[in-house]
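[recover] target loaded
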């Protein structure tokens, strides 16, 4: 069973998430919180697999709550957002969130994303990632981190990282580069290991921050 804590300051949203997730045979909503401080306490007490985290909340916002939960190692965090909260989501990703979804996402997408995060993967939505990074990484046109960090990668690994940054799945990367999916998985694993990254979300952020990938460039 995937044990989940739902965090949102709107009770109606929590009820909706509980209904969608509770209908799944492999998902158990073990707790609910209305603010970030409660989320931290529940994560520590219940040790869920995933915390479904709202961003803007009273007492303590979802960004700070995400950072503290990830630092404590009590759960992985999947952030729910709207476009007008992009800046908060970018901060949450830097703080260790394993992905983000829009609140109006389809129920089946929410379920599959939550399962992916629980299994140790990360959720990177191409459209949301592009808008997010266009605004907060690529806006000034100047890399935010030293590209020399990527010197440990082979040319093929750099190609794979660029495609990860575009939001492509392993299968899509394999088709693009004419490789097997197993080979792509191996490349992804090596990229994460060499760059000391937790998951694909951190890989996406690093690719844009170093200028390897640029918003609006195909």
């Amino acid at each position: 069973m995937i044990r989940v804590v739902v965090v949102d300051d709107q009770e109606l949203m929590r009820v909706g998430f509980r209904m969608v997730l509770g209908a799944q045979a492999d998902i158990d909503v073990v707790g609910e919180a209305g603010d970030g401080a409660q989320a931290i306490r529940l994560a520590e007490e219940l040790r869920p697999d995933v915390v479904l985290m709202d961003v803007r909340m009273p007492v303590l916002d979802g960004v700070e709550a995400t950072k503290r939960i990830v630092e404590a190692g009590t759960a992985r965090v999947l952030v729910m957002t709207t476009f007008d909260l992009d800046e908060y989501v970018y901060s949450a990703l830097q703080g260790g969130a394993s992905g983000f979804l829009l609140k109006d996402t389809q129920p089946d997408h929410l379920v599959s994303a939550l399962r992916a995060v629980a299994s140790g993967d990360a959720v990177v939505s191409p459209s949301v990632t592009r808008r997010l990074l266009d605004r907060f990484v690529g806006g000034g046109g100047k890399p935010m981190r030293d590209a020399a960090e990527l010197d440990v990668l082979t040319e093929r690994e750099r190609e794979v990282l660029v495609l990860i940054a575009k939001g492509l799945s392993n299968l899509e990367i394999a088709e693009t580069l004419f490789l097997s999916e197993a080979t792509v998985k191996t490349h992804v694993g090596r990229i994460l290991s060499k760059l000391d990254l937790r998951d694909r979300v951190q890989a996406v952020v690093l690719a844009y921050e170093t200028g390897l990938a640029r918003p609006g460039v195909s």
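[recover] notes: The first helix runs from residue 11 to 22.
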